[in-house]
Specification:
This protein is an all-alpha fold and 429 residues long. The chain is built from 16 helices and no strands. It has one domain. Helix 8 packs across helix 10 and helix 12 packs across helix 14. The protein is globular.
Length: 429
Protein backbone atom coordinates (compact mmCIF):
# COMPACT_ATOMS: atom_id res chain seq x y z
CA UNK A 1 0.00 0.00 0.00
CA UNK A 2 1.42 3.36 -1.05
CA UNK A 3 0.40 5.16 2.15
CA UNK A 4 2.25 2.66 4.31
CA UNK A 5 5.35 2.82 2.14
CA UNK A 6 5.37 6.60 2.37
CA UNK A 7 5.00 6.39 6.14
CA UNK A 8 7.90 3.96 6.40
CA UNK A 9 10.14 6.28 4.38
CA UNK A 10 9.07 9.19 6.58
CA UNK A 11 9.79 7.12 9.70
CA UNK A 12 13.33 6.37 8.54
CA UNK A 13 13.87 10.06 7.81
CA UNK A 14 12.44 11.05 11.21
CA UNK A 15 14.69 8.60 13.06
CA UNK A 16 17.72 10.10 11.31
CA UNK A 17 16.86 13.58 12.62
CA UNK A 18 18.45 13.04 16.08
CA UNK A 19 21.66 11.80 14.46
CA UNK A 20 21.69 14.90 12.28
CA UNK A 21 21.01 17.17 15.23
CA UNK A 22 23.97 15.64 17.02
CA UNK A 23 26.61 15.73 14.32
CA UNK A 24 25.23 16.74 10.88
CA UNK A 25 22.76 19.61 10.89
CA UNK A 26 22.34 19.48 7.11
CA UNK A 27 21.17 15.86 7.43
CA UNK A 28 18.63 16.88 10.07
CA UNK A 29 17.32 19.71 7.89
CA UNK A 30 16.99 17.42 4.88
CA UNK A 31 15.21 14.73 6.89
CA UNK A 32 12.76 17.21 8.40
CA UNK A 33 12.03 18.45 4.89
CA UNK A 34 11.46 14.88 3.66
CA UNK A 35 9.02 14.17 6.49
CA UNK A 36 7.16 17.43 5.84
CA UNK A 37 6.84 16.85 2.10
CA UNK A 38 5.69 13.24 2.47
CA UNK A 39 3.17 14.23 5.15
CA UNK A 40 1.72 16.99 2.99
CA UNK A 41 1.56 14.61 0.01
CA UNK A 42 -0.27 12.06 2.14
CA UNK A 43 -2.65 14.76 3.37
CA UNK A 44 -3.36 15.85 -0.21
CA UNK A 45 -3.90 12.24 -1.28
CA UNK A 46 -6.86 11.93 1.05
CA UNK A 47 -5.69 11.87 4.66
CA UNK A 48 -6.90 15.44 4.97
CA UNK A 49 -5.78 18.51 6.87
CA UNK A 50 -7.71 18.12 10.11
CA UNK A 51 -4.36 18.13 11.92
CA UNK A 52 -3.91 21.79 10.97
CA UNK A 53 -6.99 22.72 13.01
CA UNK A 54 -5.56 21.48 16.29
CA UNK A 55 -5.26 24.30 18.87
CA UNK A 56 -1.51 23.81 19.41
CA UNK A 57 -0.91 24.14 15.67
CA UNK A 58 -3.21 27.11 15.10
CA UNK A 59 -1.78 29.19 17.95
CA UNK A 60 1.71 28.43 16.63
CA UNK A 61 0.67 29.79 13.24
CA UNK A 62 -0.73 32.91 14.90
CA UNK A 63 2.60 33.62 16.58
CA UNK A 64 4.48 32.87 13.37
CA UNK A 65 2.19 35.10 11.32
CA UNK A 66 2.78 38.08 13.60
CA UNK A 67 6.53 37.44 13.69
CA UNK A 68 6.65 37.25 9.89
CA UNK A 69 4.68 40.47 9.58
CA UNK A 70 7.10 42.16 11.97
CA UNK A 71 10.02 40.84 9.92
CA UNK A 72 8.98 42.43 6.64
CA UNK A 73 12.02 44.34 5.28
CA UNK A 74 10.30 47.71 5.35
CA UNK A 75 11.50 51.06 6.76
CA UNK A 76 10.90 51.13 10.49
CA UNK A 77 10.26 53.79 13.05
CA UNK A 78 13.47 55.36 14.32
CA UNK A 79 15.81 52.89 12.60
CA UNK A 80 16.57 51.97 9.02
CA UNK A 81 14.49 48.80 9.16
CA UNK A 82 12.04 46.97 11.38
CA UNK A 83 13.49 43.71 10.15
CA UNK A 84 16.05 42.53 7.65
CA UNK A 85 15.84 40.47 4.51
CA UNK A 86 17.62 37.36 5.76
CA UNK A 87 15.56 37.42 8.94
CA UNK A 88 12.35 37.64 6.90
CA UNK A 89 13.33 34.63 4.81
CA UNK A 90 14.23 32.68 7.95
CA UNK A 91 10.88 33.57 9.50
CA UNK A 92 9.03 32.37 6.40
CA UNK A 93 10.29 28.80 6.79
CA UNK A 94 9.63 28.44 10.54
CA UNK A 95 6.38 26.45 9.98
CA UNK A 96 8.45 23.50 8.74
CA UNK A 97 8.99 22.65 12.41
CA UNK A 98 5.26 22.76 13.20
CA UNK A 99 4.45 20.54 10.23
CA UNK A 100 7.21 18.13 11.30
CA UNK A 101 5.69 17.88 14.79
CA UNK A 102 2.21 17.30 13.36
CA UNK A 103 3.61 14.64 11.02
CA UNK A 104 5.21 12.77 13.91
CA UNK A 105 2.10 12.95 16.09
CA UNK A 106 -0.56 12.21 13.47
CA UNK A 107 1.16 9.93 11.00
CA UNK A 108 4.78 8.83 11.42
CA UNK A 109 4.63 7.67 15.06
CA UNK A 110 1.13 6.21 15.14
CA UNK A 111 2.31 2.61 15.66
CA UNK A 112 3.86 1.12 18.82
CA UNK A 113 6.98 0.06 16.93
CA UNK A 114 7.57 3.56 15.55
CA UNK A 115 7.14 5.17 18.97
CA UNK A 116 9.49 2.62 20.51
CA UNK A 117 12.10 3.35 17.86
CA UNK A 118 11.77 7.10 18.44
CA UNK A 119 12.22 6.64 22.18
CA UNK A 120 15.28 4.45 21.58
CA UNK A 121 16.88 7.24 19.55
CA UNK A 122 16.40 9.63 22.47
CA UNK A 123 17.74 7.08 24.95
CA UNK A 124 20.74 6.39 22.72
CA UNK A 125 21.41 10.12 22.43
CA UNK A 126 21.33 10.55 26.20
CA UNK A 127 23.63 7.56 26.63
CA UNK A 128 26.03 8.85 23.95
CA UNK A 129 26.33 12.26 25.61
CA UNK A 130 26.83 10.70 29.04
CA UNK A 131 29.46 8.21 27.88
CA UNK A 132 31.43 10.89 26.05
CA UNK A 133 31.24 13.22 29.06
CA UNK A 134 32.66 10.49 31.30
CA UNK A 135 35.35 9.67 28.74
CA UNK A 136 36.36 13.30 28.64
CA UNK A 137 36.33 13.49 32.45
CA UNK A 138 38.42 10.34 32.92
CA UNK A 139 40.84 10.58 29.99
CA UNK A 140 40.93 14.31 29.25
CA UNK A 141 39.35 14.17 25.79
CA UNK A 142 36.32 12.77 24.01
CA UNK A 143 36.32 10.33 21.11
CA UNK A 144 37.08 13.16 18.68
CA UNK A 145 40.03 14.51 20.67
CA UNK A 146 38.18 17.51 22.10
CA UNK A 147 39.10 18.61 25.64
CA UNK A 148 37.16 20.44 28.32
CA UNK A 149 35.98 23.87 27.32
CA UNK A 150 37.92 26.88 28.54
CA UNK A 151 35.38 27.50 31.31
CA UNK A 152 35.88 23.98 32.70
CA UNK A 153 32.67 22.36 31.46
CA UNK A 154 32.69 18.96 29.78
CA UNK A 155 31.61 19.10 26.15
CA UNK A 156 30.62 15.43 25.81
CA UNK A 157 30.62 14.41 22.14
CA UNK A 158 30.74 18.05 20.97
CA UNK A 159 33.63 20.44 20.58
CA UNK A 160 31.70 23.27 22.23
CA UNK A 161 29.83 23.28 25.56
CA UNK A 162 26.47 22.06 24.24
CA UNK A 163 26.17 18.87 26.28
CA UNK A 164 24.71 20.13 29.57
CA UNK A 165 21.35 21.52 28.53
CA UNK A 166 20.67 18.87 25.86
CA UNK A 167 21.52 16.07 28.28
CA UNK A 168 19.14 17.52 30.88
CA UNK A 169 16.36 17.94 28.30
CA UNK A 170 16.50 14.30 27.24
CA UNK A 171 17.53 12.68 30.52
CA UNK A 172 14.12 11.99 32.05
CA UNK A 173 12.46 10.86 28.84
CA UNK A 174 15.33 8.40 28.39
CA UNK A 175 15.67 7.34 32.02
CA UNK A 176 12.17 7.07 33.48
CA UNK A 177 10.93 4.01 31.55
CA UNK A 178 13.80 1.69 32.64
CA UNK A 179 13.91 3.17 36.15
CA UNK A 180 10.18 2.64 36.73
CA UNK A 181 10.35 -0.80 35.14
CA UNK A 182 13.02 -1.82 37.67
CA UNK A 183 11.16 -0.24 40.58
CA UNK A 184 8.06 -2.26 39.67
CA UNK A 185 9.92 -5.56 40.11
CA UNK A 186 10.13 -7.23 43.54
CA UNK A 187 13.43 -7.39 45.35
CA UNK A 188 16.00 -5.01 46.76
CA UNK A 189 18.40 -5.65 43.88
CA UNK A 190 16.01 -4.19 41.33
CA UNK A 191 15.37 -1.14 43.52
CA UNK A 192 19.08 -0.61 44.01
CA UNK A 193 19.60 -0.89 40.25
CA UNK A 194 16.91 1.71 39.60
CA UNK A 195 18.45 4.14 42.08
CA UNK A 196 21.92 3.50 40.68
CA UNK A 197 20.78 4.20 37.10
CA UNK A 198 18.96 7.39 38.13
CA UNK A 199 21.89 8.45 40.29
CA UNK A 200 24.34 7.96 37.43
CA UNK A 201 22.19 10.18 35.22
CA UNK A 202 22.04 12.99 37.79
CA UNK A 203 25.73 12.76 38.71
CA UNK A 204 26.65 12.96 35.03
CA UNK A 205 24.67 16.18 34.69
CA UNK A 206 26.54 17.70 37.64
CA UNK A 207 29.96 16.66 36.36
CA UNK A 208 29.27 18.09 32.90
CA UNK A 209 29.45 21.35 34.78
CA UNK A 210 27.08 23.64 32.88
CA UNK A 211 24.89 25.68 35.19
CA UNK A 212 21.72 25.53 33.12
CA UNK A 213 22.05 21.78 32.66
CA UNK A 214 22.19 21.31 36.42
CA UNK A 215 19.23 23.64 36.98
CA UNK A 216 17.15 21.86 34.32
CA UNK A 217 18.02 18.50 35.87
CA UNK A 218 16.72 19.81 39.20
CA UNK A 219 13.54 21.02 37.49
CA UNK A 220 13.15 17.60 35.89
CA UNK A 221 13.57 15.83 39.23
CA UNK A 222 11.01 18.05 40.91
CA UNK A 223 8.53 17.70 38.05
CA UNK A 224 8.72 13.94 37.79
CA UNK A 225 8.40 13.59 41.56
CA UNK A 226 5.17 15.59 41.40
CA UNK A 227 3.84 13.59 38.47
CA UNK A 228 4.82 10.11 39.72
CA UNK A 229 4.45 9.64 43.51
CA UNK A 230 6.47 6.40 43.35
CA UNK A 231 9.55 8.49 42.53
CA UNK A 232 9.39 10.91 45.45
CA UNK A 233 11.63 8.97 47.82
CA UNK A 234 14.02 8.21 44.98
CA UNK A 235 14.14 11.90 44.14
CA UNK A 236 15.16 12.76 47.69
CA UNK A 237 18.01 10.25 47.43
CA UNK A 238 19.06 11.76 44.10
CA UNK A 239 18.95 15.27 45.52
CA UNK A 240 21.22 14.30 48.42
CA UNK A 241 23.55 12.53 46.01
CA UNK A 242 23.73 15.56 43.71
CA UNK A 243 24.53 17.87 46.62
CA UNK A 244 27.25 15.53 47.88
CA UNK A 245 28.83 15.35 44.43
CA UNK A 246 28.68 19.13 44.12
CA UNK A 247 30.36 19.52 47.53
CA UNK A 248 33.05 17.08 46.42
CA UNK A 249 33.82 18.86 43.14
CA UNK A 250 36.71 20.92 44.58
CA UNK A 251 38.51 17.56 44.93
CA UNK A 252 37.11 15.35 42.18
CA UNK A 253 36.64 18.03 39.51
CA UNK A 254 37.98 21.52 40.34
CA UNK A 255 36.96 23.00 36.93
CA UNK A 256 33.37 21.91 37.63
CA UNK A 257 33.44 23.64 41.01
CA UNK A 258 34.85 26.81 39.48
CA UNK A 259 32.10 26.85 36.87
CA UNK A 260 29.08 25.81 38.95
CA UNK A 261 29.94 27.60 42.19
CA UNK A 262 32.54 30.30 41.59
CA UNK A 263 31.23 31.73 38.34
CA UNK A 264 27.60 31.38 39.42
CA UNK A 265 28.29 33.35 42.59
CA UNK A 266 30.03 36.13 40.64
CA UNK A 267 27.22 36.37 38.10
CA UNK A 268 24.44 36.42 40.68
CA UNK A 269 26.27 38.87 42.93
CA UNK A 270 26.24 41.47 40.14
CA UNK A 271 23.69 39.96 37.79
CA UNK A 272 22.87 43.08 35.79
CA UNK A 273 26.56 43.47 34.95
CA UNK A 274 26.99 39.79 34.05
CA UNK A 275 26.83 38.72 30.38
CA UNK A 276 23.28 37.43 30.86
CA UNK A 277 22.16 40.59 32.63
CA UNK A 278 23.65 42.70 29.84
CA UNK A 279 21.86 40.63 27.19
CA UNK A 280 18.49 40.76 28.94
CA UNK A 281 18.77 44.49 29.58
CA UNK A 282 19.67 45.19 25.97
CA UNK A 283 16.82 43.02 24.67
CA UNK A 284 14.34 44.77 26.97
CA UNK A 285 15.50 48.20 25.80
CA UNK A 286 15.10 47.07 22.19
CA UNK A 287 11.59 45.76 22.85
CA UNK A 288 10.49 48.93 24.61
CA UNK A 289 11.89 51.02 21.77
CA UNK A 290 9.50 49.27 19.38
CA UNK A 291 6.76 47.79 21.58
CA UNK A 292 4.23 47.03 18.82
CA UNK A 293 6.29 45.31 16.16
CA UNK A 294 9.79 44.78 17.57
CA UNK A 295 12.66 44.52 15.13
CA UNK A 296 11.87 41.34 13.24
CA UNK A 297 13.24 37.83 13.36
CA UNK A 298 16.95 38.00 14.19
CA UNK A 299 16.53 41.73 14.76
CA UNK A 300 18.51 41.41 17.99
CA UNK A 301 21.44 39.93 16.12
CA UNK A 302 21.37 42.60 13.42
CA UNK A 303 20.57 45.76 15.38
CA UNK A 304 21.71 45.18 18.99
CA UNK A 305 25.08 46.99 18.60
CA UNK A 306 23.39 50.30 17.72
CA UNK A 307 24.15 52.88 20.42
CA UNK A 308 20.52 53.87 21.07
CA UNK A 309 19.95 50.49 22.74
CA UNK A 310 22.68 50.91 25.35
CA UNK A 311 20.85 53.16 27.81
CA UNK A 312 19.92 50.66 30.51
CA UNK A 313 17.41 51.59 33.22
CA UNK A 314 19.09 54.03 35.63
CA UNK A 315 15.85 54.58 37.56
CA UNK A 316 15.89 50.87 38.47
CA UNK A 317 19.58 50.89 39.25
CA UNK A 318 20.44 49.05 36.03
CA UNK A 319 23.47 50.66 34.44
CA UNK A 320 23.83 51.29 30.70
CA UNK A 321 24.97 48.18 28.85
CA UNK A 322 28.39 47.85 27.28
CA UNK A 323 29.35 45.80 24.24
CA UNK A 324 32.60 44.91 25.97
CA UNK A 325 30.66 43.17 28.77
CA UNK A 326 28.73 40.98 26.34
CA UNK A 327 25.59 43.07 25.81
CA UNK A 328 25.19 41.75 22.26
CA UNK A 329 25.32 38.27 20.83
CA UNK A 330 23.62 36.19 18.14
CA UNK A 331 20.45 36.13 20.28
CA UNK A 332 19.33 37.22 23.78
CA UNK A 333 19.79 33.69 25.21
CA UNK A 334 16.15 33.49 26.31
CA UNK A 335 13.08 32.64 24.23
CA UNK A 336 10.86 35.24 25.89
CA UNK A 337 13.29 38.14 25.66
CA UNK A 338 13.83 37.15 22.03
CA UNK A 339 10.07 37.13 21.37
CA UNK A 340 9.80 40.63 22.86
CA UNK A 341 12.73 42.06 20.90
CA UNK A 342 11.66 40.36 17.66
CA UNK A 343 7.94 41.14 17.68
CA UNK A 344 7.13 43.49 20.54
CA UNK A 345 4.44 43.02 23.18
CA UNK A 346 2.00 41.23 20.82
CA UNK A 347 4.75 38.82 19.82
CA UNK A 348 5.62 38.09 23.45
CA UNK A 349 1.95 37.49 24.34
CA UNK A 350 1.42 35.19 21.36
CA UNK A 351 4.60 33.27 22.08
CA UNK A 352 3.66 32.76 25.74
CA UNK A 353 0.14 31.71 24.67
CA UNK A 354 1.62 29.21 22.21
CA UNK A 355 3.77 27.63 24.92
CA UNK A 356 0.83 27.56 27.35
CA UNK A 357 -1.36 25.74 24.81
CA UNK A 358 1.42 23.24 24.08
CA UNK A 359 1.91 22.40 27.75
CA UNK A 360 -1.84 22.30 28.43
CA UNK A 361 -2.33 19.91 25.52
CA UNK A 362 0.35 17.56 26.86
CA UNK A 363 -0.84 17.82 30.47
CA UNK A 364 -4.43 17.08 29.50
CA UNK A 365 -3.29 14.08 27.48
CA UNK A 366 -1.37 12.59 30.40
CA UNK A 367 -4.22 12.43 32.87
CA UNK A 368 -3.66 11.85 36.57
CA UNK A 369 -1.57 8.71 36.28
CA UNK A 370 0.93 9.24 33.46
CA UNK A 371 3.09 6.48 32.11
CA UNK A 372 6.83 6.94 32.70
CA UNK A 373 7.50 7.93 29.08
CA UNK A 374 4.62 10.41 29.10
CA UNK A 375 5.97 12.08 32.23
CA UNK A 376 9.52 12.10 30.89
CA UNK A 377 8.53 13.64 27.56
CA UNK A 378 6.38 16.24 29.30
CA UNK A 379 9.32 17.29 31.46
CA UNK A 380 11.54 17.38 28.38
CA UNK A 381 9.20 19.91 26.78
CA UNK A 382 8.91 21.87 30.05
CA UNK A 383 12.69 22.20 30.37
CA UNK A 384 12.94 23.40 26.77
CA UNK A 385 10.35 26.18 27.16
CA UNK A 386 11.02 27.03 30.83
CA UNK A 387 11.30 30.82 30.93
CA UNK A 388 13.78 31.28 33.80
CA UNK A 389 17.01 30.41 32.16
CA UNK A 390 19.42 30.61 29.29
CA UNK A 391 18.39 29.15 25.93
CA UNK A 392 19.44 29.19 22.32
CA UNK A 393 17.54 31.13 19.69
CA UNK A 394 14.02 29.98 18.81
CA UNK A 395 13.53 28.09 16.60
CA UNK A 396 17.10 27.43 15.48
CA UNK A 397 17.57 23.88 14.21
CA UNK A 398 20.42 22.55 16.34
CA UNK A 399 18.56 22.89 19.64
CA UNK A 400 14.89 23.60 18.85
CA UNK A 401 14.94 20.67 16.45
CA UNK A 402 15.10 18.46 19.54
CA UNK A 403 12.12 20.28 21.03
CA UNK A 404 9.90 19.59 18.03
CA UNK A 405 11.01 15.95 17.84
CA UNK A 406 10.25 15.46 21.54
CA UNK A 407 6.97 17.37 21.30
CA UNK A 408 5.82 15.28 18.34
CA UNK A 409 6.67 12.03 20.15
CA UNK A 410 4.91 13.28 23.30
CA UNK A 411 1.74 14.04 21.34
CA UNK A 412 1.88 10.64 19.66
CA UNK A 413 2.34 8.82 22.99
CA UNK A 414 -0.50 10.78 24.61
CA UNK A 415 -2.89 10.04 21.76
CA UNK A 416 -2.02 6.36 21.73
CA UNK A 417 -2.61 6.21 25.48
CA UNK A 418 -5.96 7.99 25.17
CA UNK A 419 -7.04 5.76 22.28
CA UNK A 420 -6.07 2.64 24.22
CA UNK A 421 -8.08 3.85 27.18
CA UNK A 422 -11.12 4.27 24.96
CA UNK A 423 -10.60 0.91 23.32
CA UNK A 424 -10.01 2.58 19.96
CA UNK A 425 -7.13 2.18 17.51
CA UNK A 426 -4.23 4.59 18.01
CA UNK A 427 -3.90 5.51 14.33
CA UNK A 428 -5.91 8.59 13.45
CA UNK A 429 -7.39 9.09 10.04
Amino acid sequence: MLSERLRQVALVAALLVPLGLLHAWVLAEICIGVVDVLFLVEAARGRGFAWARQPWFMVALLWWGWLTLCSLPLPGLGLVTAGWKLGFLQALVVPRFFVFTAALADWVLTTPGARRAAWLTLAATSLWIGVEAWQQYLTGSNLFGDHRWNDGSLTGPFYKPRAGALYAHLLFAAMLPPVLAMLSKPGAAWRAGAIALAGLGVVTSVLIGQRMGVVLTAVGMAGTALLIPQLRRVTLVLLVLAVLVLLATPVISPPTYAKLVGETYRNLHHFTLSPYGELYTRATVMGLASPWHGWGYNGFRALCPLPQFGGGFPALGIAPTLLGLGACNLHPHNFYFQAFADAGVPGLILFAAMIAVWLTTLARGMGRNPAPLQAGLFMAVVTFVWPLGSADAFPILYMSGWLFFVFGLALAVNRASAAAGLGQPAVRS
